[in-house]
Amino acid sequence: MAFITANWNPLGEAFYRKIELYEMGWSLRDGLKECLVAAAPYGGPIGENSHCCKIFRIYNWKSGPVRQLGWTVCDDLLCIQEDGTVLIYDLFGAFKRHFSMGNEVVQNQVLEAKVFHSPYGTGVAIVTGASRFTLATNIDDLKLRRLPEVPGLQGAPSCWVVLTQDRQTKVLLANGVDLYILDNTSCTPVTPPGLSPQACSIVNMAVSFSYKYLALFTDSGHLWMGSANLKDKLSEVDTKVRTPPKQMVWCRRPKSQQPSVVIMWDRLLLVAGECTDTIQYTLDEESVCVAELDGVRIIGGSRHELLQEVPSACQDIFKIASMAPGALLLEAHKEYEKSSQKADEYLREIKEQSVLGEAVRQCVEAAGYEHEPETQKTLLRAASFGKCFLSNYPPEPFVSMCRDLKVLNSVREYTVGIPLTHTQYKQMTVQVLIDRLVYRKLYPLAIEICRYLKTPEYQGVSRVLKHWACCKVQQKEEPDESIAHAVSVKLGEAAGISYSEIAARAYECGRTELAIKLLEFEPRSGEQVPLLLKMKRSQLALSKAIESGDTDLVYTVVTYLKNEMNRGDFFMTLRNQPVALSLYRQFCKHQEQDTLKDLFNQDDDHQELGNFYVKASYKEKKLEARLSLLQSAVDEYNKAKNEFAAKATEEEKKLLRFQRRLDEEKGEALLGLSLQETLHALLTSNFHKQAEQLYRDFRVPDKRYWWLKLTALAEKDDWEEMEKFAKSKKSPIGYLPFVEVLCACGAAEAAIERRSEGEISTVLSRCSPTTDRALLERLNRARSTAAKK
């Protein structure tokens, strides 16, 4: 604790410190000399490409010369080759895919390339031998943009960066002392405000981590710092060094008012800010600077360090002779541990100023910025000590910081190697940290963190287990049975895990049988069936769909089978699945009539074929076609030994021919009517002979025929014909229907009107109990009146 400020260096009103994160364990004969090195932000992995063409974790490099390395947001390594091909590898050196930056690049070669991150994802920008820039803002949705030409540019520019402003990606480049901004449509010259007139050329430039600030280094040794839109100047510093630097990156904490840039030469590291002073560090080996959200990582052959501005909370507490509330509380706690009365004096001083709550807050905040666990513990103990004297201090900040530090310390371990700061951790979120651990296959640690932070299972443990299972199925040395058993035991009933996704990964790896075994653990048939169809296991897919009871799923499989199989095999498959066959028949009835006929033929189902021909006949407008279909139906019914259906169909044919003859002779539109409708039409049209013939030919029951003729004669008010008909022979339906029909048609009203007692009595004698009561009363009154006369 006494030497915490030993590595602090002042720059203006701020201090900067360099913290050693790790001793590097790689064995490089010449260190990082003549190497391409790329490190992912947020304490991400490191990729290295040396002159002997070996890339970190990727051995026996056999592809072309590499111009640039970079990392995606998902920790995949990008290797940009001289011919414009971009190769993508995962963290363990497994090749994933590749893409090209265009045909023109193949001819002109890549001179320089940069990998950048934007709101759209990971992007790649290159400049070719023809001095043209090509840009891809998102490699996962590749759309190449060729930017306009730069006037007077020969070869590569002296320096250039990629800017992301207002959701637009642009290129800022320097050609000598001239600056240009390239966008999709134009090349615009720009001038930074207040740039030193001594500058003849801009030799290096850097954009901040947030793309808000820009730094330019000129051949006169001046460093210009300002806004990335080149409208505002922050400062300009004379570094006294005219040699072009190897690298230049921003070092700026969020919410900090101190702009600073780190410039690196072969053996010198310089930090410049707003003031004229600078901080200089001597480098004893080749190193690389990596810009971070709140500092700069310095990676060398033997050491890995972090350079950052000392946070204000740490300055207030640890600065020499500081009287800040946090510093006094820390001293009070030290004296308390020594059992000294000075602890009470410090506490009284803090309470008198009413800043005890601020002191606790400073200690908690400062603990988050410290990397040494012992320093963290000291600060948190001091904060806990101060909380004891506060009655209403909320515990959440303290508890949250303790949890965060436990997680951070676990991932900073040498065996894990993710040197996250608390600021980066909060910006990155827990979910992204879990993803990064999963990409490294650190499953036990990821699960432990999820459980410790009480992350919802489907977002935490289940997600980690699913990734583990997807990785497990790719281990080709293990048999299918053991992998399927291990996955089922490990995953158990974990929430939110889809076995179909794991099975899909197994199928992609060429392990179809393993995929089928894994699908047995999938409870949702809707997830099983599509993958089984993709694996060409259609029979099993159909069985699973039927078991699910989901008719839509069954239809999906049947439609797939229909498109993939020949007609005969398709029908034979359905014959073995009665449920699927029944559903397909229902579908064909509404959508594919011809297919339905073929299906009945395949099954030798003569009864259904007969029904099919009968239904089809009703849709035909031409009589001959209808008769032909009915004859086919008769033949099928005979084969099915359904005599009734065959005879009924024959009679239908006979009726149709009779109707056609009448249409031709009498001009009546009878074709298509039923037997009863035909009789009714003939009777109402006074074709009594033809109706009698039809009655005899089709053996219409007497009662039905008498009723038909009675109602037809009543409709046309043919009372004379009705009287003849009633007297022709004994009525099989009796005479009450005649009276009821007459009453309904106005015969009773006629009798009342004539006031004939005999007629009224006749009508009353024929009335039944169901006759309208009001009508009966009128008839009785009319008879009484007629009798008096």
TrEMBL record:
<dbReference type="InterPro" id="IPR006926">
    <property type="entry name" value="Vps16_N"/>
</dbReference>
<keyword id="KW-0175">Coiled coil</keyword>
<dbReference type="GO" id="GO:0042144">
    <property type="term" value="P:vacuole fusion, non-autophagic"/>
</dbReference>
<dbReference type="Pfam" id="PF04841">
    <property type="entry name" value="Vps16_N"/>
</dbReference>
<keyword id="KW-0458">Lysosome</keyword>
<keyword id="KW-0653">Protein transport</keyword>
<dbReference type="GO" id="GO:0031902">
    <property type="term" value="C:late endosome membrane"/>
</dbReference>
<dbReference type="InterPro" id="IPR038132">
    <property type="entry name" value="Vps16_C_sf"/>
</dbReference>
<dbReference type="GO" id="GO:0016197">
    <property type="term" value="P:endosomal transport"/>
</dbReference>
<keyword id="KW-0967">Endosome</keyword>
<protein>
    <recommendedName>
        <fullName>Vacuolar protein sorting-associated protein 16 homolog</fullName>
    </recommendedName>
</protein>
<comment type="subunit">
    <text>Core component of at least two putative endosomal tethering complexes, the homotypic fusion and vacuole protein sorting (HOPS) complex and the class C core vacuole/endosome tethering (CORVET) complex. Their common core is composed of the class C Vps proteins VPS11, VPS16, VPS18 and VPS33A, which in HOPS further associates with VPS39 and VPS41 and in CORVET with VPS8 and TGFBRAP1. Interacts with RAB5C. Interacts with STX17, MON1B. Associates with adapter protein complex 3 (AP-3) and clathrin:AP-3 complexes.</text>
</comment>
<feature type="domain" description="Vps16 N-terminal">
    <location>
        <begin position="5"/>
        <end position="399"/>
    </location>
</feature>
<comment type="similarity">
    <text>Belongs to the VPS16 family.</text>
</comment>
<keyword id="KW-0472">Membrane</keyword>
<dbReference type="InterPro" id="IPR006925">
    <property type="entry name" value="Vps16_C"/>
</dbReference>
<dbReference type="GO" id="GO:0006886">
    <property type="term" value="P:intracellular protein transport"/>
</dbReference>
<dbReference type="GO" id="GO:0005765">
    <property type="term" value="C:lysosomal membrane"/>
</dbReference>
<dbReference type="InterPro" id="IPR016534">
    <property type="entry name" value="VPS16"/>
</dbReference>
<dbReference type="GO" id="GO:0033263">
    <property type="term" value="C:CORVET complex"/>
</dbReference>
<feature type="coiled-coil region">
    <location>
        <begin position="620"/>
        <end position="668"/>
    </location>
</feature>
<comment type="function">
    <text>Plays a role in vesicle-mediated protein trafficking to lysosomal compartments including the endocytic membrane transport and autophagic pathways. Believed to act as a core component of the putative HOPS and CORVET endosomal tethering complexes.</text>
</comment>
<dbReference type="GO" id="GO:0003779">
    <property type="term" value="F:actin binding"/>
</dbReference>
<dbReference type="Pfam" id="PF04840">
    <property type="entry name" value="Vps16_C"/>
</dbReference>
<dbReference type="GO" id="GO:0030897">
    <property type="term" value="C:HOPS complex"/>
</dbReference>
<feature type="domain" description="Vps16 C-terminal">
    <location>
        <begin position="497"/>
        <end position="743"/>
    </location>
</feature>
<keyword id="KW-0813">Transport</keyword>
